[in-house]
Specification:
Length: about 210
Amino acid sequence: MRKGNETRERLLDIAEAGVLAKGFGVTSIDEIIAEAGITKSGFFYHFRDKNELARGLLSRYRGRLEQLLAEIFGRAAELSDDPLQRLLIGLTLFAEHMAAMPGGHPGCLVATMSYQDQLFNREVRSLVTSIVEGWNAFFRLMIEDIVAVYPPRDPVDPGRLARNIACAIDGGIIMGKSLGDPTVLPEQLLMARNYVKMLFQPAANVLPREAMAA
């Protein structure tokens, strides 16, 4: 990694820790550059203002989470060709990954910035919305694949069920931080998994639609 990129990543690391600890509004540029050991002009070389810093934080957060989801659910796809089993395995692996994080999940930047959206310009607020929509779309596509094969026990709206899973993740992060209990997030992921299983598992005793048609 080149020196400039190393400095930028260092600034993002410091800013992210500050934002998760006390919020974006009270995390000042002065304290970031003091901890990074650079000049104010050095900071503005990488970020022209705090809105650009916010975009950098959010973009990096989204990239890392998308990579993590791709790895975990990609592994689930390797383990099963069945769409229901892929989601169930993926949520189990996701829960195990979160349970193994030292000290628990550090917090959700998207949630933190959503609470302080008045501090940001339209571009940052749109990025927050886009990230959340991306999470919902990720799970919705998998649920649509399941519904195409297995008739659910009760009527299912894939978009709403996807939001339920996303809320279990973000809500688990928030509640875990509030209670000082890192087990809450993996617990809620497994609860979401069990709900999906109960919703579709009765159909496991029935042949998938393709087999029934044949």
